[in-house]
Specification:
Distance between the termini: 146 Å
CATH topology of the domain at 224-576: Beta-lactamase
Low-confidence stretches: 204-208
CATH class of the domain at 224-576: Alpha Beta
Number of helices: 19
Strand content: 15-25%
Mean pLDDT: 85
Length: about 575
C-alpha cells in the first residue's frame, strides 16, 4: 500500500483544526463558567445555602397592650425552648428516657420527635421556665439545642382577661389578642446552623438567618382604674346576690370609646384552659337577650322625634291591656295598675300598657325604622371578635302583638353594647357613634401607625329631641323606678329594665329575671354612659332596687370621683331631698 508523504501544508492544516477546536472548547468552558458564576450565581448560591444550613422558625416577640394611661396590660417575657437535631442524636431511646421526667413528657413522644430523620431540626418542648431548660442544658446532650422565645403575661390577671383574651403557643386565640393578631404577632425569625451533607452540625456558633420583627403595640381607650372600679363592684354583687351572670359597660358618649367592660364569671388568662369557654368572651359584646324596659327609650325617642308625644296626655293603666286577645300585664297589676297617669309619668313609672299605646301611635313602620336607625339587629362594628347581632322581628312579620311587645322590649333580643350606643345617641345631640376599644397602634420606635378618630355613623334624632329625652330619663331617677340609683352631688338620668326569661317549656319565668339599668351623668355635660345587668339572682331580694340600682350607683359615683368630674349645680340628690 502506497504511503502519502505528510507535507508541511497538511501539518499546518491539522494544527489549525486542533487550534480551532481548542479555542471553541475554551470558549464553551468560559461560557459555561460565566453562566454558572454570573447568570445562575444567586440561584445556585441559594440552593447551596439550603444544603449547608438547617434552621428552625422562631416566633417574634408580640407587641404589648397598654391602657389609655400607658399602663401595661399585656407583655412578653423571655423563656427557653428545647429542640433537637435528629441526625446528631446517637441513642434516641436513652435521650428520651433522660429528658422525659425533666420536661414532664412521655418518653415515647420525645423519641418519636427526635427520630424524625427527614427533619433537620424539631421542637421537643417550647416556652419552658428557665430553671427547667437549665437542667436540660446541664445534661450536655449532643444534638439538643436551646434558644429563647417569648411567653405572654398579664399583669392585671383576670381584671382584663375577657377583653384582652389569651395567646396559644404561637397566636392569639381570644379577645383583642385574636382580633389584632396581624398587628401584635410581628414576623418570625429563624435559628440557623451549618451542617455537612449528612446533617451533622459543623462546629460553628448558632446565629439567626432572619431577625424577628417585633409586633406592634396596642393602646386602648380602656382606663385600668375605671376597669378596677367596675370589677370590684361586680365582685360585690356576685357575693351578695349570687347571680348566674353580671356585667357592666362604661363608655364615653362623646366618642364611642369603651372605658371599661367586665362580665362575671371570668377567668385567669394564665390557666384559661381550666375554665368554661363561655367565660372567655365579653358578654356585653357577644351576648344578646331580651332588654325589657330599657328598650322603651327607643319607642320614646321615636314618638318624641315624630311629634307624637304629649307629656301631659293622660292614660289609664288598669294593670294590663289586651291586644288581639293577648293579655299584656303591667308590673303593678297585683295592686290594680297605675290608674290615671300622664305619659310623662309613665316613663318614670315604666308602665308597659302606656308604652303599648305609644307604640300604636308610632306604628309598625316608624317604630322599626327607629330600631334600625339606632343600630339594633346588626353588629355595632366594635373591634372585638364574635360580636352578636341580636334578633329583631322582620317588619313584614310584625302584627299587633309583636308591635305591642317590641314597644316595651319583649320578644326581641339585643346586646348591651347596642343599648349603650343607642342611649349615647339620645344624650349627645342625636349622634350614633361606632364604639371602639383600640385608640392607637404603634411600632417599637413609638411611631403611630394607626390613630382612631371618633366615627359618627348617623344622626338618629334631632338635638331638640335629645334634650327632651334627657329630661324624661332624669325623671326615672328623680321620681321613678331608678330612684335607688340617685347620686348625691350629681344629676343622673337613666332607665331601668326587668327582662323576663324563658323557662324550658317556652313560657316566661315568674322568678328568673335580668335586672338592668342604663344611664349617664352628669346631665349638663354627660361624661359617662353606664350599663349594668344582673342575671338570675339566686340569693337575697330579687328586685332591681337591691341589685342593678346599687351596682349602677356605686360604679357611677366612684368613676365620677376618679375622673374628678365637678358636681352638678342642682344635683339629683339635692332635688330628691
Amino acid at each position: 500500500m502506497a504511503e502519502f508523504p505528510v507535507t508541511r501544508a497538511i501539518v499546518r492544516k491539522r494544527l489549525i483544526i486542533v487550534f480551532v477546536f481548542t479555542v471553541l472548547a475554551t470558549l464553551l468552558l468560559i461560557s459555561r463558567l460565566a453562566w454558572i458564576q454570573i447568570v445562575r450565581a444567586d440561584e445556585l448560591y441559594e440552593q447551596a445555602w439550603e444544603q449547608w444550613n438547617h434552621n428552625l422558625p422562631v416566633s417574634a416577640a408580640r407587641g404589648s397592650i397598654y391602657d389609655c394611661q400607658g399602663r401595661l396590660l399585656a407583655g412578653s417575657a423571655s423563656v427557653h425552648t428545647v429542640a433537637a437535631i435528629p441526625s446528631q442524636i446517637e441513642d434516641s431511646e436513652e435521650v428520651s428516657n433522660v429528658l422525659a421526667p425533666v420536661l414532664g413528657m412521655d418518653a415515647a413522644k420525645i423519641n418519636e420527635r427526635i427520630t424524625m430523620k427527614e427533619r433537620s431540626a424539631v421542637y421537643i418542648k417550647r416556652k419552658l421556665e428557665p430553671e427547667v431548660s437549665e437542667t436540660v442544658r446541664e445534661m450536655n446532650i449532643p444534638g439538643i439545642i436551646f434558644f429563647n422565645e417569648d411567653k405572654r403575661y398579664y399583669p392585671a390577671g383576670s381584671l382584663t382577661s375577657q377583653m384582652l383574651g389569651f395567646v396559644g403557643m404561637d397566636r392569639g386565640l381570644a379577645g383583642l389578642e385574636a382580633y389584632y393578631e396581624q398587628y401584635l404577632s410581628g414576623s418570625e425569625g429563624r435559628i440557623l446552623y451549618p451542617a455537612d451533607g449528612k446533617g451533622k452540625q459543623l462546629p460553628h456558633v448558632f446565629s439567626r438567618s432572619a431577625l424577628q420583627q417585633q409586633g406592634y403595640d396596642l393602646h386602648l381607650a380602656l382606663d385600668e382604674s375605671i376597669q378596677h372600679i367596675v370589677y370590684k363592684e361586680l365582685n360585690r354583687i356576685m357575693e351578695h346576690s349570687a347571680p348566674k351572670q353580671a356585667m357592666a359597660l362604661v363608655l364615653d358618649p362623646r366618642s364611642g370609646a369603651v372605658l371599661a367592660a367586665v362580665a362575671k364569671p371570668d377567668y385567669s388568662p394564665d390557666n384559661y384552659d381550666l375554665y368554661d369557654p363561655e367565660s372567655w368572651t365579653l358578654a356585653p359584646f357577644t351576648s344578646s337577650f331580651e332588654p325589657g324596659s330599657t328598650f322603651k327609650m327607643i319607642t320614646l325617642a321615636g314618638v318624641v322625634e315624630e311629634g307624637l308625644f304629649d307629656p301631659n296626655e293622660m292614660y289609664y293603666c288598669s294593670g294590663h291591656t289586651v291586644v288581639n286577645g293577648n293579655k299584656i300585664s303591667c308590673w303593678t297589676e297585683s295592686r290594680g295598675g297605675h290608674g290615671n297617669i300622664s305619659f310623662f309619668q309613665s316613663v318614670g313609672a315604666s308602665c308597659n300598657p302606656a308604652f303599648v299605646e305609644l307604640g300604636k301611635k308610632l306604628g309598625r313602620e316608624k317604630l322599626f325604622q327607629y330600631i334600625d336607625a339606632f343600630g339594633f339587629g346588626k353588629p355595632t362594628g366594635i373591634d372585638y371578635p364574635g360580636e352578636s347581632s341580636g334578633m329583631i322581628f322582620e317588619t313584614d312579620a310584625v302584627g299587633p302583638v309583636e308591635l305591642a311587645t317590641t314597644a316595651f322590649g319583649q320578644g326581641i333580643s339585643v346586646t348591651p353594647i347596642q343599648q349603650v350606643m343607642a342611649v349615647t345617641a339620645m344624650v349627645n345631640g342625636g349622634y350614633l357613634y361606632k364604639p371602639y376599644l383600640v385608640e392607637e397602634i404603634r411600632n417599637q420606635d413609638g411611631e403611630i401607625i394607626f390613630a382612631r378618630e371618633p366615627e359618627i355613623v348617623r344622626q338618629v334624632v334631632s338635638e331638640e329631641t335629645s334634650a327632651q329625652l334627657v329630661a324624661l330619663m332624669e325623671s326615672v331617677i328623680l321620681d321613678g323606678t331608678g330612684h335607688a340609683a340617685a347620686l348625691e352631688g350629681y344629676r343622673v338620668a337613666g332607665k331601668t329594665g326587668t327582662a323576663e326569661k324563658l323557662d324550658q317549656d317556652g313560657s316566661y319565668s315568674d322568678r328568673d329575671y335580668i335586672y338592668s339599668l342604663i344611664g349617664f351623668a352628669p346631665i349638663e355635660d354627660p361624661r359617662l354612659v353606664l350599663y349594668v345587668a344582673v342575671d338570675g339572682v339566686t340569693r337575697g331580694p330579687r328586685l332591681g332596687v337591691h341589685t342593678s340600682a346599687p351596682l349602677f350607683k356605686n360604679i357611677m359615683e366612684d368613676t365620677l370621683n376618679y375622673m374628678q368630674v365637678s358636681p352638678s349645680e342642682a344635683s339629683t340628690g339635692d332635688q330628691e331631698e
